[in-house]
Fold this sequence. Notes:
Blueprint: H1 2-10, H2 31-53, H3 57-63, E1 64-72, E2 76-79, H4 80-93, E3 98-101, E4 107-111, E5 115-128, E6 131-146, E7 149-158
Parallel strand pairs: 1-7
Antiparallel strand pairs: 1-2, 3-5, 4-5, 5-6, 6-7
Helix pairs in contact: 2-3
Amino acid sequence: MEKLLLIFTLLFVTNTSFASDTQSAPEGSSPSSQTELYNEILRMDTLFFDAFNRRDLKITSSLFAKDLEFYHDKGGFSDYQKNLENSKSMFANNKTLQRELIRESLQVYPIKDYGALQIGEHRFCSLNNGKQDCAIFKFTHIWRKVGEGWQLARVISYDH
């Protein structure tokens, strides 16, 4: 478990959110626009972490905003460049690390004239000494809408 926690200290971890049926829509938005936003952010989360699980640095880095701010409860603050370095190192040194969203934890909320807030939990698993080592962590992401696409602008990774 210590090795897994060390990996996460070097690693950027992101959040996802779940918009439940009982969640009220913000003023000026319809339930269908909430569902659309939820599905868009879920798609972005899937795109990002599918690339992460394949160790595809090109795709993962392209989804980070150049002004990225990443806050990790154990690792502290890092920016875009530091996350690229950490990812490159982590991808080279841990070939078994995989991330899985805990779908029922996902919450997504609009941020007016900016993008979306994603909150959730995810499970990271890695093989250590031939044994599967998994842990669940919490995250909060702020996604910025850029044209027709999205960029991950702020990440808070915690409860490690």
